Amino acid sequence: RAHTVYQSMLSRGFKGDFLEFFRLQFKLADVVFAFIMLVCFIAVRIFV
Description:
Layout: H1 2-47
């Protein structure tokens, strides 16, 4: 009984959490990518 309740709760709450997690991951990836590009640009400006 408790297992079924837990499972339904998990499947109901998991979808929303998963989407939120994915959105967060993509935002983080964009920030990291922009930061890396910036660092590369600065490095090129310094060394060249």
